């Protein structure tokens, strides 16, 4: 810190101005991202009348939890939450398993067909049948309106598989495989006993990527699910936030229309916060791994 | 001795091939079923599909749907919207992450750097539904904070979602807000790999910070920039379904209908399978050709390419 200051005071004026300019710019960028988020959180804790009357700027006005009460009284949100957790946990587990099973053989040069097989997968990144043929297939397989429709058709992402393969190639030394072979280790045993235990960082990254993706996706649910009891949170959110389909029975004392209107907006703010909390909570913890994962994929993938 | 070792090894290696096949079998079946079978389904684009006859039994119609898609005024508007939105997105969202990364790279105060990075990164985790919901709340005519803010300067109120002319800006700049921090990571990683010796040499030569960025940092990360640009150009026409569909309403439809939403509505909502598949296939082919063209161009101009 001290040397930094010393350097700075010694630096030519042009550089000083430049550095100050960068600090100002980055602070501005940070504020542009942060202020809307703070506003949403504050509005969600504010009195509904204050929200309507435009009294909320950055801090909550006459703090209340009524918005959150309304959120947790909403049955659709609660079933949405539990469905989303199901899709996230089961879906991510399937994703990880498939990704590893695919990436491992493709990472071993002993697998003689690996380049040809890799091409089969890579081609799917650039070309697809599109929406209608995919829908017809899922329909034909009898997956429409079942939970599996959100898990099986999206069981693996080729892009993440390639990131995983790159990690296997670059981070696990080849010598281990040779040593394993001399000890009579089959590829299957090698994968189980050596590769997976050594791949915790990449598995953490993939878990987060896939998990966030599953939590946030709504398109598959929108086209494949009709049963309201199966839909994930994002579909419920879409009804509330975008289509304004709000079940007014959940607002207990909704006698006055004006109050109802205010509570609707309050409910929206609270819903936005509640829906984002699970992902934003885990994010700082895994950020370190995450950055590493993006780098692995970006530089060599 | 050595020869026998390697022969023995080769023997073992040959034997273990089938085990690799066993391991990769399930992913391979998955790819064939869920990627290649639908690819076969693109013949729908050339057929007059009837449920009774099935895909293979339906009558061929040749390029009728393609002509219909490319020639009808309503779909050329859709193609135009897709292109303009794609180009606008690319121009607006490509350079800003590089600026952010270069800026962050100049900062030596670790805490400040980490905070900026963490904050700008966070919106990436907000789901599209929530993001559009936030945008709608904040631009609301009555209670939206953005209208309140511009009201202070005597402007507005503006009906952001009800005005087709504002749709593109709203779409693109909210996208910039959401993904700039995330996109910057790739460049931050690349900048971290720039050799310190080069920078020291530049300092000895008396280069100012600006000059060091221009002559050392940017050339060093040029391959990364070009690679990302090739991807971005290849994807330009692939304006995704999710956000556009959520932001769309009858008032901004003139600008917000893109190929992806069009394919969905014509195909799944109106069940016009052949026409919708033709539209989707057109989009896939254009982006595929674009990827190849941009890659080739970049190979010639910058000697960087994806393959």
From TrEMBL, chain A:
Domain of life: Bacteria
Domain ABC transmembrane type-1 residue range list: 81-275
Signal peptide: none
Assigned keywords, A-Z: Cell membrane, Membrane, Transmembrane, Transmembrane helix, Transport
UniProt GO BP: transmembrane transport
InterPro entries: MetI-like (IPR000515), MetI-like_sf (IPR035906)
Matching Pfam families: BPD_transp_1
Gene3D superfamilies the record matches: MetI-like
Membrane-traversing stretches: 20-41, 85-106, 118-136, 148-169, 190-212, 266-286
Compartments, as annotated in UniProt: Cell membrane
A GO term from the CC aspect: plasma membrane
Membrane topology reported for the UniProt record: Multi-pass membrane protein
Similarity comment: Belongs to the binding-protein-dependent transport system permease family.
Protein name (Swiss-Prot/TrEMBL): Binding-protein-dependent transport systems inner membrane component
UniProtKB/TrEMBL annotation, chain B:
InterPro entries: MetI-like, MetI-like_sf, UgpAE/MalFG_permease
A Pfam family matched in the record: BPD_transp_1
GO annotation, cellular component aspect: plasma membrane
Compartments in which it is found: Cell membrane
Residue stretches making up the ABC transmembrane type-1 domain: 79-294
Keyword field: Cell membrane, Membrane, Transmembrane, Transmembrane helix, Transport
Gene Ontology BP annotations: transmembrane transport
Keyword Transmembrane on entry: yes
Entry keyword annotation includes Cell membrane: yes
Membrane topology listed for this record: Multi-pass membrane protein
TM segment ranges: 20-46, 78-101, 121-138, 150-173, 179-198, 219-241, 273-294
Sequence similarity: Belongs to the binding-protein-dependent transport system permease family.
Protein name as it appears in the record: Binding-protein-dependent transport systems inner membrane component
Origin species: Lachnoclostridium phytofermentans (strain ATCC 700394 / DSM 18823 / ISDg)
């Amino acid at each position: 810190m001290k040397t930094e200051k010393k350097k700075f005071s010694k630096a030519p004026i042009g550089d000083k101005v430049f550095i100050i300019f960068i600090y100002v710019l980055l602070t501005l960028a940070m504020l542009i991202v942060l202020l809307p988020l703070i506003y949403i959180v504050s509005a969600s804790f504010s009195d509904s009348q204050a929200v309507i009357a435009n009294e909320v700027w950055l801090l909550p006005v006459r703090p209340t939890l009524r918005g959150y009460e309304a959120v947790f009284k909403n049955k659709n949100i609660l079933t949405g939450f539990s469905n989303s957790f199901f899709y996230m946990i089961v879906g991510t587990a399937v994703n990880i398993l498939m990704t590893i099973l695919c990436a491992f053989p493709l990472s071993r040069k002993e697998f003689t067909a690996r380049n040809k097989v890799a091409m089969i997968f890579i081609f799917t990144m650039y070309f697809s049948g599109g929406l209608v043929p995919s829908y017809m297939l899922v329909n034909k397989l009898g997956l429409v309106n079942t939970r599996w429709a959100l898990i099986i058709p999206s069981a693996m992402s080729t892009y993440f598989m390639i990131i995983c393969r790159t990690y296997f190639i670059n981070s696990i030394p080849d010598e281990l495989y040779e040593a394993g072979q001399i000890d009579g280790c089959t590829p299957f045993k090698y994968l189980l006993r050596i590769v997976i235990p050594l791949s915790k960082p990449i598995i953490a990254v993939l878990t987060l990527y896939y998990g966030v993706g599953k939590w946030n996706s709504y398109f598959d649910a929108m086209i494949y699910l009709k049963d309201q009891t199966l839909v994930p949170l994002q579909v419920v959110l879409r009804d509330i936030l975008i289509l304004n389909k709000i079940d007014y029975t959940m607002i207990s004392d909704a006698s006055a229309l004006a109050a109802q209107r205010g509570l609707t907006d309050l409910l929206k703010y609270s819903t936005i916060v509640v829906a984002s909390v699970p992902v934003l909570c885990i994010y700082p913890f895994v950020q370190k791994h995450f950055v590493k994962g993006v780098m692995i994929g970006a530089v060599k993938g | 001795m050595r020869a026998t070792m390697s022969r023995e090894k080769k023997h073992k290696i040959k034997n273990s091939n089938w085990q690799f096949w066993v391991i990769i079998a399930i992913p391979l079946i998955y790819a064939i079923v869920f990627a290649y079978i639908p690819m076969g389904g693109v013949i729908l684009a050339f057929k007059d599909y009837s449920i009774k006859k099935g895909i293979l039994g339906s009558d061929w119609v040749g390029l009728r749907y393609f002509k219909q898609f490319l020639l009808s005024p309503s779909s050329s508007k859709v193609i135009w919207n897709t292109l303009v939105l794609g180009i606008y997105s690319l121009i607006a969202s490509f350079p800003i992450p590089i600026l952010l990364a270069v800026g962050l790279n100049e900062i030596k105060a670790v805490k400040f750097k980490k905070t900026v990075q963490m904050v700008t990164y966070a919106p990436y985790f907000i789901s599209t539904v929530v993001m559009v919901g936030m945008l709608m709340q904040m631009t609301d005519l009555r209670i939206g904070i953005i209208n309140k803010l511009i009201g202070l300067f005597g402007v507005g109120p503006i009906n952001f979602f009800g005005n087709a002319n504002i749709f593109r800006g709203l779409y693109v700049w909210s996208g910039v807000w959401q993904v700039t921090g995330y996109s910057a990571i790739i460049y931050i990683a690349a900048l971290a790999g720039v050799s310190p010796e080069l920078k020291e040499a530049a300092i000895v030569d008396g280069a100012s910070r600006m000059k060091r960025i221009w002559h050392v940092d940017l050339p060093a990360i040029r391959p990364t920039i070009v690679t990302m640009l090739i991807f971005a150009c290849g994807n330009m026409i692939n304006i995704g379904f999710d956000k556009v569909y959520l932001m769309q309403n009858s008032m901004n439809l003139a600008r917000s209908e893109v190929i992806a939403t069009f394919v969905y509505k014509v195909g799944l909502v109106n069940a016009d399978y052949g026409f919708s598949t033709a539209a989707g296939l057109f989009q896939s082919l254009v982006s595929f050709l674009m990827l190849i063209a941009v890659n080739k161009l970049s190979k010639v101009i910058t000697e960087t390419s994806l393959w």
